[in-house]
Specification:
This protein is α+β, with helices and mostly antiparallel strands. It is built from 4 helices and 7 strands; from the N terminus they run H-E-H-H-E-E-E-E-E-E-H. A hairpin with a 2-residue loop joins strand 6 and strand 7.
Amino acid sequence: MTDDAPAPDAAREAGEAAAPQNAADKPRAPARSVRPTQIELEVSRQRSAGWTIFGLIVGALLIRGLGTVGVWVGIGLVAMGAYHAWQLIQTLLHPPGTIVVSDHEVVLPRGLCVPRPVVVAPHEITAIYFLRRSVPWNHVAPVLIVELGERAMAFPRDWFASEADQRHVIHAVQRARGELAPIVSASDPDAA
């Protein structure tokens, strides 16, 4: 150190604030309310309708016309057809769920067309991420995973209009938890 440079503690002793050393030391911007983000899930009745028709008709034909093995396969197809018929009826009875993220609460549907969504505070979400490779064979990747302590909720890609909607949910939750700075538009009168 040269003789004319002030000592590192001289600035602190003179009452000047030291610059933050890393991002964690930087003061956070004042808290702003997060605009509610609403992402409506998409429902496709085509798959359920197709499996309902195929399972019930082909299953009934197998039960009626074949031997023991055909009857058991037919019973399996009828069971699959009945399950998909139940799913099709649920899509007609209940609207698709909507994920709503605000600064006070996060509303997560329990399923695609299932009533009574789960309502939690943003700080109760322990993790939110994409699952891209370890996806069940009957789901389209990526799957949005929302962990709520001990349990996790999965939202497959085919429940959303696009993958961008899944990213909007992640970013809205991170903003509500204070992990990302809120979006400020030029037309926002509160932005200053």
